[in-house]
Amino acid sequence: MAYKIVSSQCTACSACEPECPNNAIREKDGTFIIKPEKCTECIGYFDDPQCVAVCPVDDTCIIDNSYPRYEAAV
Fold it and tell me: Which residues are paired to 34 by β-bridges?
């Protein structure tokens, strides 16, 4: 699964964008979005997803169940 940003809760503070190790986050129409095909849930980089860790609003960066779980290469 990838993460997604709940646009109605995003304050557009941009804290998440520079923290993403995959450059999967970008601004779009005054809020931020996560490109699911680039999101690895920070697996291989950090123990916790960095967008969740830095977002000042709880439950704004959430799992997007419509995408399969990321599998790190072995």
Answer: 25
Token representation of residue 28: 């779009």
pLDDT digits (tens, 9 = 90+) for 22-73: 999 999 999 999 999 999 999 999 999 999 999 999 999 999 999 887 766 5
Q: What is the pTM of this model?
A: 0.88
From residue 20, alpha-carbon distances to 10, 27, 65 in Å are: 16, 13, 19
Which of 20, 11, 15, 12 lies closest to 3, judged by CA?
Answer: 20
Task: Report CA 10 to chain centroid distance, whole Å.
Answer: 12
Whole-number Å distance between alpha carbons of 19 and 49? 9
